[in-house]
């Protein structure tokens, strides 16, 4: 007697479905999926999966389209970007400054005079035919009646005249800024609207801007989540942000309460400000619980900044002294004892060596090898570090930062060293957990397909080689790093990132076949249909009726 198969809520047929399965019972590619109660019920050929079609089952014909597990950005500043998403103009897809300025003009035409226009990172001069950014005069020409703020990665910012006037950025305000010598001057000595500098100065500029009303931040966060779904992103591991106090999380939590999120967000508890780190984290350690939350919004650990004075960057001095590392140890030990995951930003070799020494000290007192501690960026990691990482159970979260600022690293380290920055092949060969991401939205683009293109080619947006040779990833490796392998860092590898029975039905039906489209077209891929727990959270209308 044939056993009755359980009915599915949804069945997808006739696709090219990449399961990324680690289960020998599920092939790497199937043509059909059945979904029940938010999870994959069956994965196989069309005939086998049709057995799960019942009278109430929704059947979707895929027409040969490529399907992949829903993407997860391993390190992105989703919470911070969501607050201003509706007030931003994004330049990452622009190929000329003229087009970028036209986008600002178009937004200005839609707004009332006096409304702010923000271009907050995610672009590089190298992507423009003109190979330069905008001037104050050019911004004045396209938006004379609207204040405009343009940030170029973490390199410089430009205001137009209306923005300078709106903020009252006179000589007294300039003198009170963190680095007044970084305000660029014309021949007559007057400020020309451009301010150079790294994180501290650019954060100061950004913090002068008036925040949107709270209700607008909430709606804006929901719209950013919709944009993520449009690209096939179903998850974001949020890295917090410089000086991100408790208040900046309000819009994200309210969007979650109102059911506006279409993205599973995993949060890190972040140091609020320089000088209060020990106090801030002591409170989190006393009252917080690891992995507190639900399937849509959950605390997954602490990071990315533990101690501001030791937050390193290229060209930025940082404190790696024994005293600083001792303070970091006092911060981290209570979290080790309570079983928290830790993720720490590290770029330079000096800090990496000190940090691994520190992890080993803590591990000798409280074992951390099962806690999912990890290094963010980790450009300085070499094959020689692999035994230490393995012994500590430490993973690596690496982002496509060099797609935009690769020339800066080439100038600092040289091409030979950058070709293995980091040693991705050694990490993969050794089984070190590796999650991939963008570090969007200021330091990089949030587009996952553009990031994967970089991991596959090693090229900057301007075509300059960075990561090369054996450290380049295959398309399958890049996809796995942006989905299945990132699940380890939030302790969810048992239910996310694979399209196999029992796992969450998070997936994207792609506009083009990721495995066959020419490499130069990867950044143009979008999702025709995105499912989150089996529910439609985005549809272009090509497969099922369009969503709002």
TrEMBL record:
UniProt keyword Ubl conjugation present: no
Alphabetical UniProt keywords: Hydrolase
Coiled-coil ranges (or none): none
Any one GO molecular function term: hydrolase activity, acting on carbon-nitrogen (but not peptide) bonds
InterPro entries: Amidohydro_3, Metal-dep_hydrolase_composite, Metal_Hydrolase
Stretches assigned to the Amidohydrolase domain: 58-537
One Pfam family this sequence matches: Amidohydro_3
Identification of the protein by name: Amidohydrolase
Organism: Actinotalea ferrariae CF5-4
Native organism taxonomy: Bacteria, Bacillati, Actinomycetota, Actinomycetes, Micrococcales
């Amino acid at each position: 007697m044939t056993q009755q198969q359980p009915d599915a809520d949804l069945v997808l047929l006739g696709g090219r479905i990449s399961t990324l399965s680690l289960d020998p019972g599920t092939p790497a590619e199937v043509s059909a999926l059945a979904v029940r109660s938010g999870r994959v019920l069956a994965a196989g050929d069309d005939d086998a999966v049709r057995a799960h079609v019942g009278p109430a089952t929704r059947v979707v014909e895929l027409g040969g389209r490529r399907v992949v597990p829903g993407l997860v950005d391993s390190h992105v500043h989703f919470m911070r970007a969501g607050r201003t998403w509706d007030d931003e103009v994004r330049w990452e897809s622009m190929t000329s400054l003229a087009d970028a300025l036209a986008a600002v003009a178009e937004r200005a035409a839609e707004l009332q005079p006096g409304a702010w226009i923000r271009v907050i990172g995610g672009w590089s001069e190298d992507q423009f035919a003109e190979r330069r950014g905008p001037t104050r005069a050019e911004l004045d020409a396209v938006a004379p009646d609207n204040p405009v703020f343009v940030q170029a990665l973490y390199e410089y910012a430009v205001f137009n005249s209306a923005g300078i006037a709106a903020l009252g950025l006179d000589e007294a305000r300039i003198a009170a800024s963190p680095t007044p010598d970084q305000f660029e001057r014309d021949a007559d000595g007057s400020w020309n609207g451009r301010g150079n500098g790294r994180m501290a100065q650019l954060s100061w500029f950004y913090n002068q801007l008036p925040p949107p009303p709270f209700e607008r931040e909430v709606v804006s966060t929901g719209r950013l989540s919709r944009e993520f779904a449009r690209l096939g992103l179903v998850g974001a591991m949020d890295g917090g942000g410089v000086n991100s106090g408790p208040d900046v999380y309000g819009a994200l939590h309210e969007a979650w309460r109102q059911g506006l999120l279409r993205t599973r967000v995993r949060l890190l508890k972040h140091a609020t400000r320089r000088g209060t780190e020990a106090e801030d984290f002591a409170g989190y350690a006393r009252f917080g619980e690891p992995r507190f939350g639900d399937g849509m919004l959950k605390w997954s650990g602490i990071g990315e900044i533990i101690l501001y004075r030791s937050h390193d960057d290229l060209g930025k001095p940082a404190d790696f002294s024994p005293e600083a590392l001792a303070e970091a140890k006092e911060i981290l030990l209570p979290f080790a004892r309570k079983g928290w995951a830790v993720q720490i930003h590290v770029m330079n070799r000096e800090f990496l060596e000190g940090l691994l020494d520190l992890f080993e000290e803590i591990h000798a007192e409280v074992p951390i090898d099962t806690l999912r501690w990890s290094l963010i960026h980790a450009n300085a990691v070499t094959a020689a570090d692999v035994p230490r990482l393995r012994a500590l159970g430490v993973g690596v979260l690496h982002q496509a930062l060099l797609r935009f600022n690769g020339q800066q690293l080439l100038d600092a380290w040289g091409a030979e060293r950058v070709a293995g920055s980091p040693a991705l092949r050694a990490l993969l060969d050794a089984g070190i957990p590796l999650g991939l991401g963008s570090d969007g939205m200021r330091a990089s683009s949030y587009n996952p397909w553009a990031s994967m293109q970089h991991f596959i080619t090693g090229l900057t947006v301007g075509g300059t080689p960075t990561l090369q040779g054996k450290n380049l990833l295959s398309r399958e490796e890049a996809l796995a790093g942006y989905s299945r392998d990132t699940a380890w860092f939030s302790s969810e590898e048992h239910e996310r990132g694979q399209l196999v029975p029992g796992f969450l039905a998070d997936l994207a039906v792609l506009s083009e076949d990721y495995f066959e489209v020419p490499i130069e077209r990867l950044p143009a891929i979008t999702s025709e249909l995105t499912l989150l727990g089996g529910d439609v959270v985005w549809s272009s209308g090509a497969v099922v009726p369009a969503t709002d």
